């Protein structure tokens, strides 16, 4: 094996750490055969960073951010017995998604008996936006939030967790995740930290697609970090017994050897990339633990995120970690505040959502308030999303009496921060919360909007030899832009 090849492979030993964050800002070592992006933004940016909060399992839109009193009024009736158009016979039903057959009920989202809302709701803030009663803390932030109530997707199983991040159905060719495209398109603001960090995920091995980079190259994939400042990255510490000086000398030797080859091959940009990768890996051993050390945070901040309450501690730690990372220049932080699939309320929806909202309501409100008081909300985008909503009809499989099934036809996400309208609602579902009305917004419209706010045009991030579809690019949701 040639020495250069050996040293290049050795760099992969940091489990993607070095390669996951290295010098793509220099315009080298991108996808094979792909030119570097222009090195500058395509548009005037409104934001510097993104905190992307994902709730795995599919929260019920009608019991969170899109309350539907008609469900209570017509509870127990079938869709065809209400004064509204039967959503099952709507052409939107066949147009927008690819269903998976269920065992007892024809198609799994078609449950005809209307299930009432399991929680009350009220208007909040000067904007008067309606939210359900499970979000009392977040409701105090409503005038800073921007809701999109007409989202839709096509996968009605949990592969939709990958789809909302990549834009592709599980039966289609995989695409890089939204975080990877941002990593690919933007430079760094902190040479000691990765540009794309993942906290709390991926939730399991088959959701790796949600943070992966595929043909963009592994250097653009998300870097998962743990919240333990003593060991934030597996295999990212010095070996036992090795001093910092000894390790620095080791990296200096590797650099010197590579520099000798650089004299022989002066145009080898990838070799320069490897040199910087080792330097970055060394620096991160100090920068990452500092970023994830909460000891300097005040008691007021700890209270804001709920760190001293067992119910809210986990989500609070992950969201506070996200704030500390963007504060230090990380471009994209993907946060999973709860474990895989826990919002998947096929049964006991009221019990499940009551508990889960209680774990997240205070910390997510704390994040918004903390970013705002630090002036970071004016340069950060917060995205709060899930993979799909829940059915307006009662799930009847296995004799179900108190839950809702997966529902890709219409659901709600919200955003806050740089370049977005405040206290605003865009779009709607029908009276029963079934279909996203109008054209609605496929998940890549959300991607396009985030890229736009960061100053990027996704169509100008094309990679030669990789033709993307129009639906992959999506369209900017212009109505929500400030």
How would you explain this protein's 3D organization?
The protein is α/β, with parallel strands linked by helices and 482 residues long. It has 2 domains: 1-30 and 236-291, no CATH class; 41-227 and 297-480, Alkaline Phosphatase, subunit A, CATH 3.40.720.10. The protein contains 14 helices and 13 strands. Strands 1, 4, 5, 6, 7, 8, 11, 12 and 13 form a 9-stranded mixed sheet that branches. It has a two-stranded antiparallel ribbon with strand order 2-3. Strand 2 and strand 3 form a beta hairpin.
Oligomer: single chain
Shape verdict: globular
Which CATH class of the largest domain is shown?
Alpha Beta
Q: What is the CATH homology-level superfamily of the largest domain?
A: Alkaline Phosphatase, subunit A
Count of all domains: 2
Portion in strands:
5-15%
Brief overview, please?
The chain has 482 residues and is of the alpha/beta class. The protein has helices at 3-11, 17-21, 69-73, 91-96, 136-139, 160-166, 178-185, 244-264, 269-291, 299-305, 310-327, 349-373, 443-453, 470-473, and strands at residues 49-55, 121-124, 129-132, 145-152, 196-199, 223-225, 332-335, 380-386, 389-390, 406-407, 411-417, 424-426, 441-442.
């Amino acid at each position: 094996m040639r020495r250069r090849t050996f040293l290049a492979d050795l760099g992969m030993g940091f489990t993607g750490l070095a390669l996951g964050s290295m010098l793509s800002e220099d315009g080298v070592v991108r996808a094979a055969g792909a030119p570097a992006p222009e090195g500058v933004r395509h548009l005037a940016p409104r934001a510097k960073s993104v905190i992307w909060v994902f709730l795995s399992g599919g929260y019920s839109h009608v019991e969170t951010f899109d309350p539907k009193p008609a469900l209570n009024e017509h509870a127990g009736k079938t869709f065809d017995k209400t004064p509204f158009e039967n959503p099952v016979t709507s052409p939107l039903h066949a147009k927008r998604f690819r269903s998976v057959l269920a065992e007892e009920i024809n198609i799994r989202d078609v449950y005809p008996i209307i299930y009432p809302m399991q929680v009350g709701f009220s208007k909040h803030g000067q904007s008067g936006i309606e939210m359900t009663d499970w979000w009392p803390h977040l409701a105090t932030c409503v005038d800073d939030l921007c809701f999109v109530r007409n989202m839709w997707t096509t996968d009605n199983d949990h592969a939709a967790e990958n789809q909302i991040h990549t834009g592709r159905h599980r039966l289609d060719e995989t695409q890089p995740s939204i975080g990877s495209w941002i990593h690919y398109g933007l430079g760094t603001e902190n040479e000691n930290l990765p540009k794309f960090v993942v906290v709390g995920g991926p939730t399991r091995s088959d959701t790796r697609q949600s943070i992966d980079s595929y043909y963009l190259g592994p250097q653009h994939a998300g870097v998962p970090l743990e919240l333990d400042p003593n060991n934030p990255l597996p295999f990212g510490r010095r070996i036992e017994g090795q001093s910092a000086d000894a390790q620095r000398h080791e990296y200096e030797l590797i650099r010197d050897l590579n520099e000798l080859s650089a004299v022989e091959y002066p145009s080898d940009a990838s070799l320069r990339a490897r040199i910087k990768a080792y330097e970055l890996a060394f620096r991160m051993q100090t920068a990452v633990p500092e970023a994830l050390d909460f000891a300097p945070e005040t008691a007021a901040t700890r209270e804001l995120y709920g760190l001293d309450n067992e119910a809210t501690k986990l989500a609070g730690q992950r969201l506070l970690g996200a704030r500390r990372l963007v504060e230090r220049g990380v471009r994209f932080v993907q946060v999973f505040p709860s474990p895989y699939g826990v919002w998947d309320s096929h049964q006991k929806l009221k019990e499940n959502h009551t508990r889960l909202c209680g774990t997240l309501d205070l910390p997510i409100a704390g994040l918004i308030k903390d970013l705002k008081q630090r002036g970071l909300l004016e340069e950060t985008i917060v995205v709060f999303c899930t993979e799909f909503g829940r059915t307006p009809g009662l799930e009847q499989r296995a004799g179900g009496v108190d839950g809702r099934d997966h529902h890709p036809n219409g659901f709600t996400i919200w955003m806050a921060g740089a370049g977005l309208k405040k206290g605003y609602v865009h779009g709607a579902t029908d009276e029963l919360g079934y279909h996203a009305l109008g054209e609605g917004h496929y998940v890549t419209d959300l991607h396009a909007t985030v890229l736009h706010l960061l100053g990027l045009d996704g169509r100008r991030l094309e990679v030669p030899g990789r033709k993307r579809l129009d639906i992959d690019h999506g369209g900017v949701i212009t109505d929500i832009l400030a």
